[in-house]
Amino acid sequence: MYNIIYISTSSQFFDDYTLASILEASRENNKQVNVTGILLYADGTFLQVLEGEKEDVEYIFNKIICDFRHSNIIELVKGPVKNRIFVEWAMGFASANADVLQEFEGYVNPAELRFISDESHTAAMILLQSFVQNNRMN
């Protein structure tokens, strides 16, 4: 099992309709190669976890890198993991603003360089798990 956690800047601010369209396409693409994960969108920033077999995760991530809707892509974590965290989600999704995200345990400002550190994986996973527990998604 393998995962990639990254942040990126969106090319524009997306409305709910556009985000729903992105989510639908992501879920379909991920299901085809058995990749699971979660996508958070807040104030023009994406934070995403992709998990699955290494070649499948890298395939999806390379599609994201080529997607004009993303810029300033920063890999926070990339490597083997013991288990999937988001087993049931081809792509869980939530949209929030930064004020909401700051309320969750593990939040760190992605604009700060200290976010990219040895503790990034733990901090990112704590944030995501806290967000998921407080916002059960279908």
UniProtKB/TrEMBL annotation:
GO molecular function list: blue light photoreceptor activity; FAD binding
InterPro entries: Acylphosphatase-like_dom_sf, BLUF_domain
Alphabetized SUPFAM superfamilies for the sequence: Acylphosphatase/BLUF domain-like
Sequence ranges assigned to domain BLUF in this UniProt record: 1-92
Protein name per UniProt: BLUF domain-containing protein
Species the sequence originates in: Mucilaginibacter limnophilus
